[in-house]
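Chapter review: from sequence to fold.
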Amino acid sequence: MIEPLLLTTTRVWTFDGKRPLTGASGFFFERGGRLFLVTSRHVLLDEPGKHFPDRIEIELHTDIKNLTRSIGLSVLLYYEGKSIWRHGKDSGGEVDVAVIELERAALPRTVALQCFTPAHLQRSLEDVEAGTSLLIVGFPLGFHDELHHLPVVRQAVIASSFGLRFQGLGYFLTDARTHRGTSGAPVVMRSDSNGQLSWKLLGVHSARMDMAGRDLEQDETLGLNCAWYADILLTLTA
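The token string follows.
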């Protein structure tokens, strides 16, 4: 048996033409029969980092009974000069989350994946407490089960008030050990409902946090990360 949670998440590679650029994480979200890939916006476009990919590749399982079988799916990011992916803003400004709609006809007939849906979103922010246990599902530094093409999970806890957007921005903090390649990973909390996929989708992991004035010789990194609230997906997939 394979845990359904591990089939929600896929490895994302970015390219400029044929030139490989970076690796990241992404996950599947379904709404009204439409299928979306979710990742961090900076994976698809990062002006300060001079990161301008024109396509991505994701990995898809093609046989639920044999997870060693997979294919890569190439997805263009622009069509006639316009981006096919969406990102948004909230009351705090730009949100580091992006979605790309995937054409089901382009997927293998036997594709094996699991999708989060609007039912997996946390409706009430006040019902989740600081210190709540979480999992972050992704590909840190590209590390994963290369035989079965599956991500790994890192334990985390909520490190700020979930009911108050941190610094007035659209994210909350997590306390977890994370690395490059985890950007775009789902941040989830165990749930007793939602059927086979018994998790609540709370956020989208974005980046590690640090103090600008930290003494690199005396002070360790904070070990804190920002995760953008997943409710932005209701806007981006409308």
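Two observations follow directly from the output. The chain has a mean pLDDT of 93. Helices lie at 41-44, 232-236.
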